[in-house]
Design brief:
Length: 250
């Protein structure tokens, strides 16, 4: 249901330009582990290209052909070698192992079923070298924010951006929360003064609550060794906006 959201990779990069803290964290994790790196849901390469430029043999697995093509273009432009692969993080077989596997920027939350999450973790487990680690981040669900997903279209001023071809782009979002599925079902509207709703794209994201994740990881053959609540590695607390996990094979 979210494929269209990622069909314009350049628009995605302008909508989500990224910040330095997550990039610094994952670069530090790659340096701490050393060796080879695999990113699942590698998108346009925003994190993996800098990691590869640090000297780590790097592979990116991505489901969207458009995002993968943009990542390849950016890596080539920078002269950085990355192996880019089209594939599904739920089930993949690359016939080798990695010292670090990471899943950044809530990419894991595109997997809506518990079975899909467990299959992903099992696939990761098979691809971890001895001493290897899985690192990922997802948001910490806020009951208040979920309750505000009432199906009303609202302007998100903080998401507005400038497109060099279109000018100022405004973003509206309309969301409902399916409590039984733990999935927020949204529609994103991109508009300019001259072209209202020039892109309308669905986006669905699962919520994973803190008590669920250790069990899902365990079913996938992994165990939690560290859990943080922000990019500075502060301890996870109930009011943390982020769940940041470091896992090893069980």
């Amino acid at each position: 249901m979210s494929e269209q959201f990622y069909s314009d990779a350049k628009l995605y990069d302008r909508l989500f330009p990224g910040s330095e803290q997550p990039l610094s964290f994952y670069r530090a994790e790659a340096d701490r582990q050393g060796g080879s790196v695999l990113e699942l849901g590698s998108g346009t390469g925003r994190k993996l290209i800098p990691i590869a430029s640090d000297g780590h043999p790097s592979t990116g697995l991505e489901l969207s052909p458009e995002m993968l093509a943009e990542a390849r273009r950016k890596a080539d432009e920078r002269g950085v070698v990355v192996e880019w692969l089209l594939g599904d993080m739920r089930e993949f077989d690359l016939r080798r192992t990695f010292d670090l596997v990471f899943i950044a920027a809530n990419s894991l939350l595109h997997l809506q079923e518990a079975d899909d999450l467990v299959e992903c973790f099992r696939s990761v487990r098979r691809h971890l070298a001895p001493g290897g680690r899985l690192v990922f981040d997802v948001f910490n669900p806020s009951v208040r924010m979920l309750a505000e997903a009432d199906g009303v279209r609202r302007r998100r001023d903080t998401l507005s951006f400038v497109d060099p071809d279109r000018g100022v782009v405004q973003v509206d979002v309309e969301e409902t929360y399916d409590a039984a599925a733990q999935v927020t079902r949204g529609t994103w509207f991109f508009s300019t003064d001259a072209a209202p709703d020039f892109v309308v794209a669905p986006l669905e994201m699962r919520s994973i609550f803190p008590q669920e994740l250790p069990l899902l990881l365990s079913l996938g053959g992994l165990r939690v060794v560290e859990r943080f609540g922000d990019w500075s590695r502060a301890p996870f607390t109930s009011d943390a906006a982020l769940q940041l996990y470091v896992c090893t094979p069980d």
